Amino acid sequence: MKSFDLTGKIAIITGCDTGLGQGMAVALAKAGCNIVGVNLIEPADTRNMIESLGRKFVNVEADLMHQENISLVINKALSVFKKIDILVNNAGIIRRQDAVEFTEQNWDDVININLKTVFFFSQAVVKQFIKQGTGGKIINIASMLSFQGGIRVPSYTASKSAVMGITRAMANEWAKFNININAIAPGYMATNNTAALRADTERSTEILDRIPAGRWGTPSDLGGPCIFLASPASDYINGYTIAVDGGWLAR
């Protein structure tokens, strides 16, 4: 089981105050990581859960709509821990509007944080990985809409389809540095992003009827895949997107 041991590793996780990001941050801490969180607010619950495990948690309040804040996060992580081993690009937003009325602002905001920030955060961390000379792991968060079109979420679909694509592209260039870049595509998860869907009884029933597992996913469901992709157990996996969807795509 040593291949899954992350003791002493330093992981940056964007958007870990609640939901999937929190679930992955806690899972990595359980596996041995100290965590650098990037959030718009102080994630008190996440901090408490991680510190109760005996791990260190450092939060950086930063708006990732502005890519110049990426360097602030990198510098903070290095000032405290002296190195970076893992990056989880989890932060993301969604805008719902009929495509025929979809605004340029809704397009730009989603593409900015879901795609542009993912690439440039990865680029900045990879430069540090190369400088350290010890390789590293990047985990991007894709979506079921990396595979499907969706309804009323054109910019989200575009961004998550592109996340799967740039995961492959980055892996092609950076694998030679002993850097693994992979993605997790969560299925329909019970998080803030799906609150509107779950509140719509008809739509929620349609979704659940198609999921072989018969339930919405939870943040803890991403824990195992995240640990796997962050650990030496996945050293020969690169550019791949793992669906954690209760069987949705198999239907």
Q: Features of this protein?
A:
251 residues; alpha/beta; seven-stranded parallel beta sheet; 8 helices
Task: Briefly say what this structure is.
The protein has 251 residues and is of the alpha/beta class. The chain is 42% helix and 15% strand.
Structural description of this entry:
The chain is of the alpha/beta class. The chain is 42% helix and 15% strand. The chain has a seven-stranded parallel beta sheet with strand order 3-2-1-4-5-6-7, sandwiched between helices. Helix 1 crosses helix 8 and helix 4 (104-132) runs parallel beside helix 5. The protein is globular, with a radius of gyration of 17 Å. The two termini are 33 Å apart.
List the helices and strands and how they pair.
Blueprint: E1 10-14, H1 19-30, E2 34-39, H2 44-51, E3 57-61, H3 70-81, E4 86-89, H4 104-132, E5 136-141, H5 154-174, E6 179-186, H6 195-199, H7 201-210, H8 223-230, E7 241-244
Parallel strand pairs: 1-2, 1-4, 2-3, 4-5, 5-6, 6-7
Helix pairs in contact: 1-8, 4-5
